[in-house]
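Model: Ready when you are.
Researcher: Fold this.
Model:
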Amino acid sequence: MEDKIVTLESYIDLMQAEIALGTLQAAGISCFMDENAMNIYPLYSDSLGAFKIKVFERDVEKCREILEHADEQELDNE
């Protein structure tokens, strides 16, 4: 069975993308950030969502739960 890599989320802000990536990696998820749109179309990067978090398709649901839980914790701390 081949593992398909998909885009989990797209971010305009590099810092938000780095936080999401770090959160997923800390949870043991294999993931990486694709910044190709930023390099190819720098003037349009904001509208393209230049920073894309890529994960294995089998991990998408788990990743969404992890990021949602992290967002809830952040709101609780405010």
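Researcher: Now this one.
Model:
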Amino acid sequence: MQPTIQSNKSVLPRLERQKNTLAKKVLSIKDEETIALLSSYFQDLVSTKRITKAQYNRELDAAEKAVNEGEFVTNEQVMKEMKKW
């Protein structure tokens, strides 16, 4: 939902604080895998290029392979790491 023009003035300072807080958290991350994950996530947010069905399937296959090989982080591990922020 888009804020109205009048309420936008009150939203901007809060938004800036939230962005600054998020930036500080990102800057404090010391784990390379977490940085790579965040980088990938942000790239996906700004990407407007559609991928082909074949590329989509390759990415799914690679993700399944990584999980099957134990390359993942559990929710508990993420929650534990978040408490350090």
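Researcher: Key takeaway?
Model: Residues 10-84 form one domain.
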